[in-house]
Amino acid sequence: MPRTTIGPCGMLSAVDVERTIQFILELQAKAEARMDKSEARMDRSDARMAASDARVAAMDKRMDKRMDAITKLLQQGMRMVGQTQTQIADLARELKELAAAQKELAAAQKATDKSLKALIDSLRNGRNRRNGH
Length: 133
Description:
By secondary structure, the protein is mainly alpha-helical. 89% of the residues lie in helices and 0% in strands. The chain has one helix spanning 14-131. The longest helix is centred in the middle third of the chain and has 118 residues, at 14-131. The termini are far apart.
């Protein structure tokens, strides 16, 4: 601050008042310059924040789409598992039916073999009696 002198009546001289006013104006100009720089930094920071918010929003949107796709895949997979379980149960039932039919066929084949053997034996025995054997 500039040096001031006080006159005989306790008043500042006109030169001192002028210097004080000039000093205050310079301080105010410097403060305004600092404020302008600070506002410019804030504006740049706000712009970066807005860009960051836009990137985050875009990533959220992509993530939501991916989550929806994964959800659909899981739902389709669960339907396929349900269908597969139904098909396995149907195949197991059909396999049991086939096994039962095979047992019946085996029993029928044994009976046929027995009957055929009896027929062959009776034919042999019948020939042997005619031939005198």
